[in-house]
Automatic annotation (TrEMBL):
GO terms for biological process: receptor-mediated virion attachment to host cell. PROSITE patterns: TPR. This is Tetratricopeptide (TPR) repeat protein. The keyword Repeat applies. GO terms for cellular component: cell outer membrane. TPR repeats lie at residues 74-107, 108-141. The keyword Repeat applies. SMART domains: TPR. Keywords: Repeat, TPR repeat. PANTHER family: TETRATRICOPEPTIDE REPEAT PROTEIN 6, UDP-N-ACETYLGLUCOSAMINE--PEPTIDE N-ACETYLGLUCOSAMINYLTRANSFERASE SPINDLY-RELATED.
């Protein structure tokens, strides 16, 4: 079957909520064209929605191949880092996230992911720098600010953490209140 029809079948199956059948069609596509970027990316995306380690390992394999095929795509590097983070492979996740931000310094979610991975690795000062960059790119998202406050708190910098809580009060008062409570305990 022509690849264009297989792609259309995948989209239709996903639209109908038939994820398992879509995965089967994607497997057929991979067998016919092992280097098809659409098949690799789409299958990886579907597999990454699982928390099952085997599905995540398959997603990571697809994304590694996609990164080799499209070495200049920051999104593919970020997605690989995201899946590797879910697998708990912090060093490789850190390399993938660092690659993503090197390719696209404005990719805010990659800066956030880089910060999370560096936190897991105990690299708090470099995690703080990543979260700072994330908050510059996404100033109204509470996620980067919250992690930044937690990182400062863990570094025995309560004034910085409190400054961030006060900043959050201006646009996310509930998040600020919960964070303030968390940092007091």
């Amino acid at each position: 079957m022509p690849m264009i029809l297989l792609r259309a079948a995948v989209w239709l199956l996903l639209l109908l909520g038939l994820r398992a059948l879509a995965l089967q069609v994607l497997q057929t596509m991979r067998a016919q064209a092992p280097q098809d970027g659409f098949a690799l990316a789409t299958r990886a995306h579907l597999l990454a929605q699982s928390s099952a380690p085997e599905a995540l390992r398959l997603a990571a394999a697809d994304l590694r191949q996609l990164c080799q095929l499209q070495p200049d795509q920051a999104g593919a590097a970020f997605n690989l880092g995201y899946v590797l983070e879910k697998l708990g492979d912090w060093p490789e996740a850190e390399r993938a996230m660092a690659r993503a931000v090197a390719l696209d310094p404005k990719l805010d979610r990659a800066w956030y992911g880089l910060g999370l991975v560096r936190l897991q690795m105990g690299q708090i000062p470099s995690a703080i720098e990543a979260f700072k960059r994330n908050t510059e790119l996404q100033p109204l998202s509470p996620y980067g600010w919250t992690q930044l406050a937690r990182a400062h708190h863990s570094q025995q910098q309560p004034q910085e953490a409190q400054r961030i809580v006060e900043h959050l009060r201006g646009f996310e008062p509930q998040v600020a209140a919960a964070l303030a409570q968390e940092l007091r305990t």
